[in-house]
């Protein structure tokens, strides 16, 4: 077991190393951050000073090695734009993204599970057909457009919800959370729903497929034959079993939601990590881009590892042995 | 991002098609503004960038400042005059206090000038505005003298960019201390309340302000870079005021009686830079057969003139820009300092252009690639598409290539392009600035031609400009700048297209003292007078 963990850890380090090289070379290939950051009025002397101040006068490999040296000490560099540690910039924005991602997941399960269950139990009913067609829309409508439509309807037309931004925050464990206030929830509702749309459809389809498959199982027939009420059959026996694949997929989706909620965050001006990364790419703020992607890689590696460990715990047939 | 920006246009058309349903009345004395550009720091000496400057002018003051027409007016200094070839004397305003109650004196000016070049890790230092100063002499608490290395008439203009800090408060203060609010203390019309970088800035009125007190007790200054989102926030009533209104929304917003639009001729010239550097064929110009040409056709004045008069500037201004641009034949609006009063945009004449090309030895034209950014200036990619069609009409077959600014500007800076669109915001509002940066021969030691990416070079213009930059007499300096501008325009060093108008949108209950220099500030917004 510990050999397995060590090996996984080693692989993770390699992935992160490769990632940082790719980002370094990639940003270098796109352009020169100084051209973008510097005031147009700056003269040549000022330009040279700025290049030196940001450490961009060194050859790329030396810049990379010094980055690597600092990274080993836990310092991922300072943002060119904000002159703040890149890691701190990202972590400051993490609560906003986390509450958005979890909010979206919550909505996805709250809406997706019952609808999927209904569609699975009554596959030929009118309602079920409507739900399934709706889920195709959820898959295919672009997030960007849906976001703007939500703003138009609920903020511009009806005036029920605030159009953009994050509401007032409450400090918990030194971090700022907005879902603990009523106004914060109102701000959260639309972006979370927008982000959840795709996931709702996913959950509906997974649940429906699971229900239809499970309903034909022998143990369900047996439970029925035993004279259990339909409600008990559905909510205890069927529901429990279909939850396993749903939870797995939703867990993995959570990772990509946290990492790639960029579009929703920029439409709703949600001050999270996704907005930060887009802003940073636009001005080639390399330290922030590198740090962000390293964090994301680390997050995915951790999630995958946890999933693997959970499987082996749940299912004794899965062994974490070296192949 | 490319996908997003194309979708943005389509989606916005839909958003603006809906009229505003209900407008929530603004809370008295509180103003919520949304701006499109990122504020990167509250340290007024950290990153020389116009959004940062806009915020700095709300919290801090400089010795001089610009009025809405970009003319210089007194700030913390009441008056200034040269008292020698290389000495400027500034008389300071008496009785001014910083937000923490400390008095403002000449010592604070000396401290500020010393701090500006010392800010660490600055990606773009304000030192370019203080470099001319050799030393600061504090004559008495309300008089300060700047000794410059050489005669320097632009000092009062440059000092408008430099926010004055308090020696007592800001000694040793870092950029982080400003962002955290610990020392975000100035003499300006608003006081710092809170700042979340990339999201919002909260300000309250400085009731002890020395100048006109702003109307708003409380200001929420939000950063909403997405155009569609910003417009929607205004329509939804979440914000009272927005800047950088996208031209695609203008038609419908102008019709709406729930929104007031404010427009102002700006100071940003949009122009085409041409490759003057490569005599043996320009990188992206070929003959009609696709083979490189032996010489660079852009070296021939007749070709440059043909390319200039082939462009139908009024059509671009009205159709591409929806009226938010003024066709131009020079850097600045004709009334500005150093601009030529009677020089309008060149008249469009495709036939004359063809004739000029034939005279220059290109009766069948040639092929050229016209480059430009697609995410930097208002409708940048659409402008070069339009120009490409107009050039093709006179026989210069044009391939249009629009790229993101990050990629494009690097190539332009390495002289890899033949003709490209760029813009230039003239922060000083007078003609020496564009002449020096865009037209003067590239020269590191003089600091000339920094953004002269086509590498135009004309010693006669350089000489005139150098004279102008040492001439303390305003009338004489203006005459020299006009001559230099005339020479550059006659020689078609660049092809000016238009000067952008700045557009703001707000609730109809507000009025805006719109500024030529694009700054969006709370003190310029007031409630509309009731009839």
TrEMBL record, chain A:
<feature type="transmembrane region" description="Helical">
    <location>
        <begin position="12"/>
        <end position="31"/>
    </location>
</feature>
<keyword id="KW-0472">Membrane</keyword>
<keyword id="KW-0813">Transport</keyword>
<feature type="transmembrane region" description="Helical">
    <location>
        <begin position="130"/>
        <end position="156"/>
    </location>
</feature>
<dbReference type="Pfam" id="PF00528">
    <property type="entry name" value="BPD_transp_1"/>
</dbReference>
<protein>
    <submittedName>
        <fullName>ABC transporter permease</fullName>
    </submittedName>
</protein>
<dbReference type="GO" id="GO:0005886">
    <property type="term" value="C:plasma membrane"/>
</dbReference>
<dbReference type="InterPro" id="IPR000515">
    <property type="entry name" value="MetI-like"/>
</dbReference>
<keyword id="KW-0812">Transmembrane</keyword>
<feature type="transmembrane region" description="Helical">
    <location>
        <begin position="289"/>
        <end position="314"/>
    </location>
</feature>
<keyword id="KW-1133">Transmembrane helix</keyword>
<feature type="transmembrane region" description="Helical">
    <location>
        <begin position="188"/>
        <end position="207"/>
    </location>
</feature>
<feature type="domain" description="ABC transmembrane type-1">
    <location>
        <begin position="94"/>
        <end position="307"/>
    </location>
</feature>
<dbReference type="Pfam" id="PF19300">
    <property type="entry name" value="BPD_transp_1_N"/>
</dbReference>
<dbReference type="InterPro" id="IPR035906">
    <property type="entry name" value="MetI-like_sf"/>
</dbReference>
<keyword id="KW-1003">Cell membrane</keyword>
<feature type="transmembrane region" description="Helical">
    <location>
        <begin position="242"/>
        <end position="269"/>
    </location>
</feature>
<comment type="similarity">
    <text>Belongs to the binding-protein-dependent transport system permease family.</text>
</comment>
<dbReference type="InterPro" id="IPR045621">
    <property type="entry name" value="BPD_transp_1_N"/>
</dbReference>
<feature type="transmembrane region" description="Helical">
    <location>
        <begin position="100"/>
        <end position="118"/>
    </location>
</feature>
<dbReference type="GO" id="GO:0055085">
    <property type="term" value="P:transmembrane transport"/>
</dbReference>
TrEMBL record, chain B:
<dbReference type="GO" id="GO:0043190">
    <property type="term" value="C:ATP-binding cassette (ABC) transporter complex"/>
</dbReference>
<keyword id="KW-0732">Signal</keyword>
<dbReference type="GO" id="GO:0015833">
    <property type="term" value="P:peptide transport"/>
</dbReference>
<dbReference type="InterPro" id="IPR000914">
    <property type="entry name" value="SBP_5_dom"/>
</dbReference>
<feature type="domain" description="Solute-binding protein family 5">
    <location>
        <begin position="72"/>
        <end position="440"/>
    </location>
</feature>
<dbReference type="GO" id="GO:0030288">
    <property type="term" value="C:outer membrane-bounded periplasmic space"/>
</dbReference>
<feature type="signal peptide">
    <location>
        <begin position="1"/>
        <end position="28"/>
    </location>
</feature>
<dbReference type="InterPro" id="IPR039424">
    <property type="entry name" value="SBP_5"/>
</dbReference>
<dbReference type="InterPro" id="IPR030678">
    <property type="entry name" value="Peptide/Ni-bd"/>
</dbReference>
<comment type="similarity">
    <text>Belongs to the bacterial solute-binding protein 5 family.</text>
</comment>
<protein>
    <submittedName>
        <fullName>ABC transporter substrate-binding protein</fullName>
    </submittedName>
</protein>
<dbReference type="GO" id="GO:1904680">
    <property type="term" value="F:peptide transmembrane transporter activity"/>
</dbReference>
<keyword id="KW-0813">Transport</keyword>
<dbReference type="Pfam" id="PF00496">
    <property type="entry name" value="SBP_bac_5"/>
</dbReference>
């Amino acid at each position: 077991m510990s050999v397995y963990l060590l090996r996984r850890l080693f692989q993770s380090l390699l992935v992160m190393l490769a990632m940082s090289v790719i980002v370094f070379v990639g940003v270098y290939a796109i352009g020169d951050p100084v051209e973008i950051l510097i005031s147009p009025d700056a003269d040549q002397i000022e330009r040279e000073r700025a290049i030196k101040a940001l450490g961009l006068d060194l050859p790329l490999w030396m810049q990379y090695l010094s980055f690597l040296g600092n990274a080993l000490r836990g310092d991922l560099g300072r943002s060119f734009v904000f002159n703040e540690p890149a890691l701190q910039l990202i972590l400051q924005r993490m609560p906003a993204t986390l509450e958005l991602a979890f909010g979206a997941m919550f909505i996805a399960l709250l809406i997706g599970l019952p609808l999927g269950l209904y569609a699975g139990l009554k596959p030929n009913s009118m309602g079920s057909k409507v739900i399934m067609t709706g889920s195709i829309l959820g898959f295919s409508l672009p997030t960007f457009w849906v976001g703007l439509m939500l703003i138009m309807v609920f903020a511009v037309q009806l005036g029920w919800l605030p159009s953009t931004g994050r509401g007032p925050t409450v400090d918990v464990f030194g971090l700022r959370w907005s879902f603990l206030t009523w106004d914060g929830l109102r701000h959260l509702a639309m972006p979370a729903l927008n982000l959840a749309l795709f996931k709702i459809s996913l959950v509906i389809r997974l649940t429906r497929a699971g229900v239809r498959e499970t309903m034909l199982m022998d143990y369900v027939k047996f439970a029925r034959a035993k004279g259990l009420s339909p409600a008990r059959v559905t909510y205890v026996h069927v529901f429990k079993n279909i939850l396993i694949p749903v939870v797995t997929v939703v867990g993995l989706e959570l990772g990509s939601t946290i990492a790639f909620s960029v579009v929703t965050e920029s439409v709703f001006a949600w001050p999270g990590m996704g907005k930060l990364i887009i802003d940073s790419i636009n001005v080639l703020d390399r330290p922030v881009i590198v740090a962000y992607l390293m964090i994301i890689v680390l997050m995915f590696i951790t999630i995958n590892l946890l999933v693997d460990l959970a499987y082996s715990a749940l299912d004794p047939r899965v062994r974490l042995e070296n192949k | 991002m490319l996908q997003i920006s194309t979708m943005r246009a389509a989606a916005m058309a839909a958003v603006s098609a809906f009229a505003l349903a209900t407008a929530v009345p603004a809370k008295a004395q509180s103003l919520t503004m949304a701006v499109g550009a990122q504020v990167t720091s509250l340290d007024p000496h950290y990153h020389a960038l116009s959004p940062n400057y806009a915020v700095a002018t709300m919290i801090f003051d400089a010795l001089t400042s610009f009025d809405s027409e970009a003319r210089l007016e007194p700030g913390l200094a009441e008056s200034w005059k040269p008292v020698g070839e290389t000495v400027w004397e500034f008389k300071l305003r008496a009785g001014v206090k910083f937000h923490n109650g400390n008095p403002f004196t000449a010592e604070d000016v000396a401290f500020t000038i010393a701090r500006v070049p010392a800010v660490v890790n600055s990606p773009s230092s304000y030192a370019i505005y203080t470099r001319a100063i050799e030393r600061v002499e504090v004559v008495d608490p309300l008089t300060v003298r700047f000794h410059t290395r050489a005669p320097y008439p632009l000092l009062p203009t440059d000092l408008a960019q430099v926010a004055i800090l308090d020696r007592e408060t800001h000694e040793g203060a870092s950029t982080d201390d400003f962002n955290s609010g610990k020392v975000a203390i100035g003499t300006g019309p608003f006081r710092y309340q809170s700042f979340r970088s990339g999201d919002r800035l909260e300000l309250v009125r400085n009731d002890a302000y020395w100048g006109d007190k702003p109307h708003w007790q409380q200001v929420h200054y939000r950063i909403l870079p997405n155009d569609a989102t910003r417009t929607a926030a205004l329509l939804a009533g979440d914000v009272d005021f927005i800047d950088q209104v996208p031209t695609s929304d203008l038609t419908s917003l102008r019709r709406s009686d729930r929104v007031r639009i404010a427009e102002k001729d700006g100071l940003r010239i949009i122009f085409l830079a041409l490759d003057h550097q490569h005599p043996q064929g320009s990188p992206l110009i070929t003959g009609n057969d696709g083979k490189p040409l032996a010489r660079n056709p852009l070296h021939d004045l007749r070709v440059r003139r043909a390319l200039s008069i082939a462009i139908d500037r009024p059509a671009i201004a009205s159709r591409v820009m929806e009226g938010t641009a003024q066709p131009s034949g020079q850097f600045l609006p004709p009334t500005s300092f150093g601009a030529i009063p009677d020089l309008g945009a060149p008249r469009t004449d495709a036939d004359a252009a063809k004739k000029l090309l034939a005279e220059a030895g290109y009766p069948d034209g040639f092929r050229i690639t016209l480059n430009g950014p697609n995410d930097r200036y208002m409708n940048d990619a659409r402008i070069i598409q339009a120009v490409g069609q107009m050039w093709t009409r006179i026989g210069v077959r044009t391939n249009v290539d629009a790229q993101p600014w990050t990629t494009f500007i690097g190539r332009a800076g390495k002289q890899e392009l033949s003709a490209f669109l760029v813009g230039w915001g003239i922060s000083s509002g007078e003609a020496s600035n564009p002449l020096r940066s865009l037209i003067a021969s590239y020269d590191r030691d003089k600091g000339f031609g920094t953004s002269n990416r086509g590498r135009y070079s004309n010693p006669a213009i350089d000489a005139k400009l150098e004279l102008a930059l040492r001439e303390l007499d305003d009338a004489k300096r203006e005459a020299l700048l006009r001559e230099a501008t005339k020479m550059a325009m006659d020689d078609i060093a660049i092809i000016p297209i238009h000067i952008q108008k700045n557009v703001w949108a707000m609730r109809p209950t507000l009025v805006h003292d719109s500024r030529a220099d694009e700054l969006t500030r709370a003190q310029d917004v007031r409630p509309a007078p009731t009839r």
